Amino acid sequence: VLFRSEIKDLLSYLRIVANSNDDISLQRIINVPKRGIGPSSVEKIQAYALQNNISMFDALSEADFIGLSKKVTQGCIQFYDLLQNLIKEQEFLEISEIVEEILEKTGYRAMLEREQTIESRSRLENLDEFMSVPKDYEENTPLEEQSLIN
């Protein structure tokens, strides 16, 4: 299950929430689900980040200065705001709740539900199976032990 694209996408979202400087994870999810930020726009964001010695995440907050179309700039700013909110929420949510927030707020779950294919149903099942891991951990690990890890 861990090698499926939906799990890799979800792990990339979780990595960004934990470390916004993870450019590799950001590149994977910047247009998943589709938000109009294609490969050439990603290259411009990457170049801007390198030129200014900042992460791609930080470059998104400066999307107005990158030279992208208005639509792509808006997509970048909305994506940045979404990630910022998830980063703030992680401070007071359980892992399973963060995963749920990612699936809902990014539109990832809705994207798969709209597809209505055997493949998309399988991908949703994989996500649900993946979700059982942190839920099981939270339900079966004493709070004292969880606080040592977090």
TrEMBL record:
<dbReference type="InterPro" id="IPR000212">
    <property type="entry name" value="DNA_helicase_UvrD/REP"/>
</dbReference>
<dbReference type="GO" id="GO:0005524">
    <property type="term" value="F:ATP binding"/>
</dbReference>
<dbReference type="GO" id="GO:0000725">
    <property type="term" value="P:recombinational repair"/>
</dbReference>
<protein>
    <submittedName>
        <fullName>ATP-dependent DNA helicase PcrA</fullName>
    </submittedName>
</protein>
<dbReference type="GO" id="GO:0003677">
    <property type="term" value="F:DNA binding"/>
</dbReference>
<dbReference type="Pfam" id="PF13361">
    <property type="entry name" value="UvrD_C"/>
</dbReference>
<dbReference type="GO" id="GO:0005829">
    <property type="term" value="C:cytosol"/>
</dbReference>
<dbReference type="GO" id="GO:0043138">
    <property type="term" value="F:3'-5' DNA helicase activity"/>
</dbReference>
<keyword id="KW-0378">Hydrolase</keyword>
<dbReference type="InterPro" id="IPR014017">
    <property type="entry name" value="DNA_helicase_UvrD-like_C"/>
</dbReference>
<dbReference type="GO" id="GO:0033202">
    <property type="term" value="C:DNA helicase complex"/>
</dbReference>
<dbReference type="InterPro" id="IPR027417">
    <property type="entry name" value="P-loop_NTPase"/>
</dbReference>
<keyword id="KW-0347">Helicase</keyword>
<dbReference type="GO" id="GO:0016787">
    <property type="term" value="F:hydrolase activity"/>
</dbReference>
<keyword id="KW-0547">Nucleotide-binding</keyword>
<keyword id="KW-0067">ATP-binding</keyword>
<feature type="domain" description="UvrD-like helicase C-terminal">
    <location>
        <begin position="1"/>
        <end position="150"/>
    </location>
</feature>
